[in-house]
């Protein structure tokens, strides 16, 4: 089983997981369901996935359980490798670990080839896009609880973290056409990822551009403002995961090694609807490059 917090899978794939059966049906189209081990992710998705009469985006039930996928999921597969997902700055030490980890992918029977991901905007613009779109979704969620007598913006604004508060406030003045323009850019991100998948079964990238950030005691933890000397959005710009929240491709992060004593993740992204393939590829990588014996005691306890 992979380390806890090492696997992240987007819910819309083999069978889309219903995210909000009681809310506006056509708006529940974003996000991923947390972090858990590969085995737990398979069990969770098997239990959660399936059609729902109140969700127009739900898909038919899968023919087989995701908990029963093969552990030989990389043999004969073609893996596209992008060291920066088309323009994200990556810490050099993280980049070294990721490149070394590709030998585990190849040992599992896959062919790994470099690929150029041509995103439609730079990473700062895409981080801003994520903040805007998530702000609208969060604001919509808050509007949904007004009927419960809860008004966070009116009664609890000063209790929210600054970043979350700013997202909510900015969303109040976004026009419908501005949001549609953001959705067009999101679609262009999807097209770029689909182009990168042409001829490949999986896409491999770093999961994060840096190792773990320092967790503040006041609940206001953010990431770095720059990576490898390049400015990034501290809320999300150091994560190479959020573009797949835009696109809905299933993805998992597997332990790739250590940089300066801290864990580094290799992100394995699958074709749309191929959750089973991502789980099987993750299992194959774990078998080819087991991580437990290579991590210090403080990590594996």
Short description:
The chain is of the alpha/beta class and 301 residues long.
Query: What is the oligomer described by this structure?
Result: single chain
Measured by DSSP, the beta-strand proportion falls in: 5-15%
Number of helices: 9
- CATH homologous superfamily label: Amidase signature (AS) domain
For the record, the CATH architecture stands as Alpha-Beta Complex
Task: Give the averaged pLDDT, no decimals.
Answer: 86
Uncertain ranges: 1-16
Q: Strand order, biggest sheet? A: 2-1-3-7-6
Number-wise, the strands total: 7
CATH fold naming: Amidase signature (AS) enzymes
Order of helices and strands: HEHEHHHHEEEHEEHH
Please state the structural category.
alpha/beta
Give a verbal description of the structure.
This protein has one domain (25-300): Amidase signature (AS) enzymes (Alpha-Beta Complex). The protein is 36% helix and 12% strand. It is built from nine helices and seven strands; from the N terminus they run αβαβααααβββαββαα. It has helices spanning 38-48, 92-107, 123-144, 152-155, 162-171, 176-196, 243-247, 275-288, 297-300; strands at residues 78-81, 111-114, 202-206, 226-227, 230-231, 251-259, 262-270. The chain has a five-stranded mixed β-sheet. Strand 6 (251-259) and strand 7 (262-270) form a beta hairpin. Helix 1 runs antiparallel to helix 8 (275-288), helix 3 crosses helix 5 and helix 3 crosses helix 6. The longest helix is centred in the middle third of the chain and has 22 residues, at 123-144.
Index terms:
301 residues, 36% helix, alpha/beta, Amidase signature (AS) enzymes, single chain, 9 helices, 5-stranded mixed sheet, disordered N terminus, two-stranded antiparallel ribbon
